[in-house]
Design goal:
Elements: H1 2-14, H2 23-37, E1 48-54, E2 57-65, E3 68-75, H3 82-96, E4 100-104, E5 108-112, H4 120-123, E6 124-129, H5 135-146, H6 148-153
Parallel strand pairs: 3-4
Antiparallel strand pairs: 1-2, 2-3, 4-5, 5-6
Helix pairs in contact: 1-5
Length: 156
Amino acid sequence: MKKPIMAFVKDLKSNKKLHSLDEASIKQAVALRLLSLLGWDIFNVEEVYPDFSSDSVTVSFALRIDGVGKMLLDVKRLGENPDELHKQLIAFAVREGVDLAAHTDGTRWWFYLPTVKGALAPKRCHVCDLIEQKPEDVTSDLMAFLAREKVVSGEY
């Protein structure tokens, strides 16, 4: 699993057009491809539930096992106030009873533990940056947080 993910990370790192992609393209070219490499069945909408919504809030994907939400993944370009976007994601994850939430803009990945007490900063458990970090480090981090078996077992 590690070699194909590292090759994908290296491809992304060298892709000059990545910063100009819109959200739909990032979902398809980055998020879904990475989830597939990490063992998720991206063609099973019960497992990788697209455009998951509740109470007028929508996130890009809910990663689920046997109909139970395990993780929320949102793909959005960052606006003026990324903290507000992250707070909304965390609040939604808490309402849905999900223990892990992530946001990506295609190159950076923010991981949150929504049930941790406190403000936004203590809930943020990790940040990956595909451009700034070494491919080996990003690959290990993405595998640790997003690999299907890690999410299912709670080992993330």
